[in-house]
């Protein structure tokens, strides 16, 4: 009964953790409330702005009647909120389009291989008198594709919690640009990324979706877009065409930005865009179907050099928009509205790019197409993109005597002021409704501040309308008044967007405090359980002969405290892997000193430190998501042994090294089944793992660049072998579960019984984890075996030293701390880090091409946490075996479970302590600039890791305890 009570204790801890995390999360990750309201054409009658019809008549001849201002006279049959400036819109989305993919290399300090690969866009944008423009578009993090598409179409800010929906995008329920197109009679055709169909399931007249999450597939989506794009350009059955290409995004995820595949994709896109522009230009003449068409080529987000995105770094949030009108080429707009940044090329030619917030995209294209602005949009109609589409940019800076151009300039500015008036009114309406409807609204002080700014702008607008109606006929210039009005509305809109970015999430400190208190209570429960399990052996003060145990306890506490404190700094969170490896090396140095003093276990201490040094190097590789494969050696430098990156030696080493490591692991398992203690189902489980290792070697051979049979194995090796490995792994787990429940345990020594169980369990999981991790998997697995063995041997050195004394603790906290730190280091050494762009999405498609949410989520979880959580926790019984000596307690024969239980509790205590430090950190740093880009992802990874740790510990205690333990 004692064993059963102990197992239930950790289930209680798990429940406490879940409750505390849920309450804390409810206070920290509050989401923006999505309002079920939609804009309609008739709504503009409530605004103080001119109607489109009346504004047109006002431009041609001023009226002295106040009734002409009355917006209730809007002819809704002709226009909606604004007069349409373009008839058709072509949107080509190149997923993960970095700004330096489009902008000339002269804009950057150093030219890189991927720059200037889209020369057709640069040629058109910088051509004299061109009607094209390149914009640097700034996205709001998180920069996953789902959040960016929602932000682009709704005009609102993304919510962090929606990152979890990136693998199963729900339909957008709030008002958006696509919905406004549909209710205004616009016909929309979509092709490419199937996320669009998930977000807008019933909005497209035609759709050609292709699965988007198989990042190993560079061509299926792109080829599908190409097949449907060019025929559609010749058809007249659409008003808005959306083509979403994914090749650059997938090439970045798998190969990185600086890769041959990335350059090939960019060159392919350049040819594609050249053909698209040629087709549009050929039909842009008078009466042509593209006479009034606007082309937009844009990215939804950027990507890091490793091809990742999701966070808030400059590389991830900076993307590009290329816009081109096929009407008269514009020249300039009023200088105060120009955001150009200019450089000179090698020929002295002036090249300028503008900037735009992605937040402004939805409202700007809505104004260009003449549809209602999305109800929840808080963006501003961008003057440069709006002027380009409206073809009113052809206004030269003229003197006061050029009345004709001055009048044209005034007409355009007047129209833009009216658009901004509608824009500001719509944003103010949304803020008022949101604050009244949502519990997560703005504070009264914030509302009063933005209301004052809006009222001031409205007061100026009343005076400006009088100028427009009466002063214009006297020939007075209205430009100064109009420009002041633009400043007033722009000031209001910028204040709203800044307020939303800084305070959209109102943190519930009370719930966060309750959740943190519950987590602290769990620490007390775990500590009490450890104390209770050691109570018969604890006697204070410690005798001088046991001072080594006292030092290990204090030193272990010091190491855990240092790591927990490091999580309060954003710099140390970024370098978390290096902090963990430094602390692990520190414990290794202490063990080395001890082994030198005692003149024993010196080889193990030296090997452990050498392993830590290797892991330190692999963490650097892991941060660039390059495993020790031919890809890493091609991209990385020739500084290693002065060999060229493409030297055959590196190729053979990178291909043969992982297979040799796999052979060594299989040999170790073979030695295990050769033991007389390996009997029954455990022997068959281990044999199944050896068979899986052979299959994995064949799988890697099918992907080899040096194997002559790789082409023959591609079909079977790349698809069916991984599935066979998964099937064998599941069969092994079911076999062990059956043996635990129904088979009778033979009268083996308790120590060897636990060894066989642990070996079988680790081997059953290892094959799946290795194949998901790629060719680095066997190397990391071998490193974990070596590291674990060294920790066991060095811990036994302490055990031998105190074998003749009465133990004050029946386990060594420092050894468990080393075990935990090794697990943390393996997480970073396998190419992961605590951010959503640190997930290796390609692992979810090992053996599969189609996307199934549950299956791919399980595979991604196993790959992400396999070496850092699953294997270390399931392998912890080896520490108990190392210290187990039957019959050496003060209360009769000792069960090995009495050693295993406090070790698991200690492992859980260390993990819980670091998670509590993370919770305290995000509470303190909740207003930090990097809260959503760094602290929130760290929080999510840590709490998911803690829950996974708790569940694995609970299952391990059930599996390893044995049936006899329940009767003790």
From TrEMBL:
Q: Which InterPro entries match?
A: Alkaline_phosphatase_core_sf, Phosphodiest/P_Trfase, PIG-O_N, PIGO/GPI13
Q: Which domain of life is it from?
A: Eukaryota
Main localization is endoplasmic reticulum
Keyword Transmembrane helix tagged: yes
A GO MF term: mannose-ethanolamine phosphotransferase activity
Q: Name one GO biological process term.
A: GPI anchor biosynthetic process
Name the residues that span the membrane. 9-29, 511-531, 605-623, 649-669, 681-700, 720-742, 814-833, 899-919, 939-960
Its membrane topology is listed as: Multi-pass membrane protein
Query: Entry's Pfam families?
Result: Phosphodiest
The pathway that the record names for this protein is: Glycolipid biosynthesis; glycosylphosphatidylinositol-anchor biosynthesis
Give its localization.
Answer: Endoplasmic reticulum membrane
Alphabetic keyword roster: Endoplasmic reticulum, Glycoprotein, GPI-anchor biosynthesis, Membrane, Transferase, Transmembrane, Transmembrane helix
List, alphabetically, the GO terms of the cellular component aspect: endoplasmic reticulum membrane
The entry sums up its family as follows: Belongs to the PIGG/PIGN/PIGO family. PIGO subfamily.
Q: What is this protein called?
A: Uncharacterized protein
């Amino acid at each position: 009964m004692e064993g059963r009570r102990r197992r239930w204790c950790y289930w209680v801890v798990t429940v406490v953790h879940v409750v505390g995390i849920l309450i804390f999360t409810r206070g920290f990750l509050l989401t923006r409330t999505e309002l079920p309201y939609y804009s309609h054409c008739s709504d503009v009658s409530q605004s103080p702005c001119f109607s489109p019809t009346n504004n047109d008549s006002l431009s041609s001849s001023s009226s002295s009647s106040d009734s002409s201002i009355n917006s209730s006279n809007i002819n809704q049959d002709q226009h909606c909120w604004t007069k349409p400036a373009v008839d058709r819109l072509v949107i080509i989305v190149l997923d993960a389009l970095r700004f330096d993919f489009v902008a000339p290399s002269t804009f950057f300090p150093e030219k890189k291989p991927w720059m200037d690969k889209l020369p057709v866009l640069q040629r058109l944008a910088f051509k004299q008198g061109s009607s094209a423009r390149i914009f640097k578009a700034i996205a709001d993090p998180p920069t996953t594709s789902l959040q960016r598409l929602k932000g682009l179409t709704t005009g609102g800010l993304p919510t962090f919690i929606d990152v979890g929906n990136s693998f199963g995008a729900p339909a957008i329920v709030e008002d958006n640009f696509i919905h406004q197109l549909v209710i205004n009679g616009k016909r929309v055709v979509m092709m490419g990324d199937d996320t669009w169909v998930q977000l807008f399931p019933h909005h497209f007249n035609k759709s050609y979706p292709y699965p988007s999450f198989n990042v190993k597939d560079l061509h299926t989506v792109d080829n599908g877009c190409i097949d449907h794009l060019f025929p559609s350009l010749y058809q007249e059955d659409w008003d808005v065409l959306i083509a979403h290409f994914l090749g650059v995004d997938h090439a970045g995820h798998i190969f990185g930005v600086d890769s041959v595949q990335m350059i090939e994709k960019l060159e392919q896109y350049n040819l594609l865009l050249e053909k698209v522009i040629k087709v549009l230009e050929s039909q842009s003449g008078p009466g042509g179907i593209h006479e009034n068409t606007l082309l937009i080529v844009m990215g939804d987000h950027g990507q890091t050099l490793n091809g990742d995105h999701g966070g808030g770094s400059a590389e991830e949030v900076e993307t590009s928009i290329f816009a081109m009108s096929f009407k008269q080429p514009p020249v300039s707009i009023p200088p105060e509205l120009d955001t150009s940044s200019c450089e000179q090329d090698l020929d002295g030619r002036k090249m300028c790019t503008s900037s735009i917030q992605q937040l402004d995209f939805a409202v700007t294209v809505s104004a260009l197409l003449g549809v209602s602005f999305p109800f929840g949009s808080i963006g501003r109609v961008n003057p440069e993109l709006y002027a380009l589409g409206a073809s009113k940019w052809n206004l030269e800076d003229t003197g006061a005597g050029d009345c004709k151009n001055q009048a044209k300039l005034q007409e355009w500015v007047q129209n833009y002021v009216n658009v901004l008036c509608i824009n500001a009114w719509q944003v103010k309406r949304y803020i008022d409704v949101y604050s009244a409807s949502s519990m997560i609204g703005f504070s009264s002080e914030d509302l009063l501040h933005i209301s004052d700014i809006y009222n001031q702008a409205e007061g100026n607008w009343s005076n400006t309308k009088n100028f427009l109606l009466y002063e214009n006929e006297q020939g007075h210039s209205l430009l100064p008044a109009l420009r002041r009005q633009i400043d007033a509305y722009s000031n209001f809109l910028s204040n709203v967007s800044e307020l939303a970015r800084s305070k959209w999430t109102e943190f519930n400190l009370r719930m966060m405090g309750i959740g943190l208190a519950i987590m602290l209570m769990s620490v007390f429960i775990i500590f009490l359980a450890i104390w209770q399990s050691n109570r018969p052996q604890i006697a204070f003060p410690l005798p001088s002969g046991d001072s080594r145990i006292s030092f290990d306890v204090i030193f272990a506490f010091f190491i855990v405290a240092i790591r927990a404190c490091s999580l309060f700094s954003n710099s140390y969170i970024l370098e978390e892997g290096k902090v963990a490896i430094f602390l692990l090396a520190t414990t290794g140095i202490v063990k080395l000193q001890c082994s030198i003093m005692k003149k024993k276990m010196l080889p193990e201490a030296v090997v452990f430190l050498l392993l830590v040094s290797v892991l330190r190097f692999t963490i650097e590789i892991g941060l660039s998501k390059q495993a020790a494969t031919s890809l890493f050696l091609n991209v990385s430098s020739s500084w290693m042994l002065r060999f060229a990156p493409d030297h055959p030696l590196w190729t053979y080493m990178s291909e043969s090294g992982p297979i040799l490591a796999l052979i060594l692991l299989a040999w170790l398992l073979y030695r295990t089944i050769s033991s007389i203690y390996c009997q029954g189902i455990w022997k068959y489980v281990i044999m199944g793992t050896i068979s899986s290792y052979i299959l994995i070697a064949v799988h890697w051979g099918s992907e080899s660049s040096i194997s002559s049979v790789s082409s023959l194995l591609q079909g079977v090796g790349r698809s069916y072998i991984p599935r066979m490995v998964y099937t064998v792994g599941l069969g092994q787990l079911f076999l062990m579960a059956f043996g635990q429940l129904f088979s009778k345990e033979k009268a083996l020594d308790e120590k060897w019984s636990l060894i066989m169980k642990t070996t079988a369990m680790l081997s059953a999981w290892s094959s799946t984890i290795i194949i998901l991790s790629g060719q680095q998997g066997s190397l990391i697995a071998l490193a974990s075996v070596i590291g674990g063995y060294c920790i066991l041997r060095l811990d036994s050195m302490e055990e031998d030293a105190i074998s003749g004394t009465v133990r004050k603790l029946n386990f060594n906290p420092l050894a468990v701390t080393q075990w935990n730190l090794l697990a943390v280091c393996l997480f970073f050494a396998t190419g992961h880090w605590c951010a959503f762009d640190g997930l290796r999405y390609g692992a979810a498609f090992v053996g599969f091409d189609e996307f199934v949410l549950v299956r791919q989520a399980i595979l991604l979880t196993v790959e992400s946490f396999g070496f850092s959580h699953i294997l270390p926790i399931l392998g912890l019984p080896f520490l108990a075996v190392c210290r187990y000596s039957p019959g050496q307690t003060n209360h009769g024969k000792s069960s090995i479970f009495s050693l295993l239980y406090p070790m698991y509790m200690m492992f859980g205590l260390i993990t819980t302590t670091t998670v509590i430090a993370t919770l305290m950190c995000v509470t303190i740093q909740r207003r930090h600039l990097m809260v959503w880009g760094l602290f929130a992802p760290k929080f999510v990874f840590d709490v998911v890791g803690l829950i996974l740790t708790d569940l694995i510990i609970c299952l391990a205690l059930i599996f390893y305890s044995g049936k006899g333990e329940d009767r003790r």
